[in-house]
Amino acid sequence: MLFDIGYISSEPIEVFEKGKSKFSRHSCELYNGLSDIAFASSDKSRLLAAGLDGAIYIWDRRLSNLPCLELTTNSQSQINSIVLDLEDRIVFGASKHGTLYAWDLRGGRASFAFQSHNEVYYPLLTSVKLSSLLEKITSLKAQSNITSKEIHSISFNPSCSYQLAFHLDDGWSGVLNVGSLSVTHVHCPPPAWLDGMDMSTSPNLRRPSWLPACSIYVVGSSSGNGIYLLDFYPDTSSACHVDIDNLLY
Q1: Where would you tag: which of 26, 104, 167, 173 has the fewest CB atoms within 10 A of its CB?
Q2: Residue 140: phi, psi to the nearest 5?
Q3: Enclosing domain of residue 69
Q4: 118 lies in the same domain as 23
């Protein structure tokens, strides 16, 4: 549902529907929901939404209230968070199974959209398991048992176009350089059990955010009421850079 807050009304001005997916193998009503939305910055007529069925749906408000395009993965793992790069060319999706996906809206590797039966579709540009990238950080691997975790959210640094921040469901945060596909910054807070938190209950995760004018990433603590202000400045001088000594502590 799309609301215009300029109107004093609780009724949406437009309602978009996912409709019947062309690709999803999920038929259960449980997978029909949407988890995140994003607008193209240069064209407010284009709306993207991440689906619980592992697809990303794109609407053109000028054409229809049904999606004009679906972006899919092979795993159909739930997509928790989506974001467009600053030029609206690449859309990134973060999955429940700890994988980052990317699609090139200009048409993928071949730089043009493939066509089949008069329909345009966009192949998956790349996918990467985040835990595999974290394992490449020697100092981190020496101090922690790295396992695949659910990616809670992703977002681009407004001050640095190639820095994609990620936040995991265990409270870890970091930065992926989308140019080199390498993790450059990591913050690993103390485990919740150190603060006496009941591990049998799920933490109330809050969506992190970049401060607009500097490379500071703000993350809510999963074991308390405070927040972390993380130095993700794009340089080895950053306190959270992977090349600094004693990365975890």
Answers
A1: 26
A2: -75, -45
A3: 1-129
A4: yes
On whether both 13 and 62 belong to a single domain, the answer is: yes
9: exposed, middle or buried (Cβ count in 10 Å: 0-12, 13-18, 19+): exposed
Do residue 109 and residue 211 come from a single domain?
A: no
Q: Which of 171, 177, 153 is nearest to 238 (CA)?
A: 177
Q: pTM to 2 decimals?
A: 0.84
Q: Which residue has the tokens 């030029």?
A: 87
Residue 129 has what pLDDT?
95
- Low-confidence stretches of the chain (pLDDT < 70) are 21-31, 107-121, 191-204, 223-224, 245-249
The reply to whether 86 and 147 lie within a common domain is: no
Same domain, yes or no: 166 and 243: yes
> Could you give the 3-state DSSP secondary structure of residue 108?
helix
Residue 116 is predicted with a pLDDT of 38
Whole-number pLDDT of residue 181: 94
Which CATH number characterizes residue 83's domain?
A: 2.130.10.10
Residues 170 and 210 in one domain: yes
**Size of the chain, expressed as the number of residues it contains:** 249
91: tokens are 């859309």
The CA distance from 84 to 36, in Å, is: 12
| Helix residue ranges, H only, 5-54 | none
Q: Given this model, what pLDDT does residue 186 score?
A: 95
Q: Extract the runs of DSSP E, i.e. beta strands, from the chain.
A: 34-39, 46-51, 56-60, 69-71, 79-84, 90-95, 99-104, 114-116, 119-121, 124-129, 151-157, 160-168, 173-177, 182-187, 209-210, 216-220, 227-231
Domain shared by 108 and 180, yes or no: no
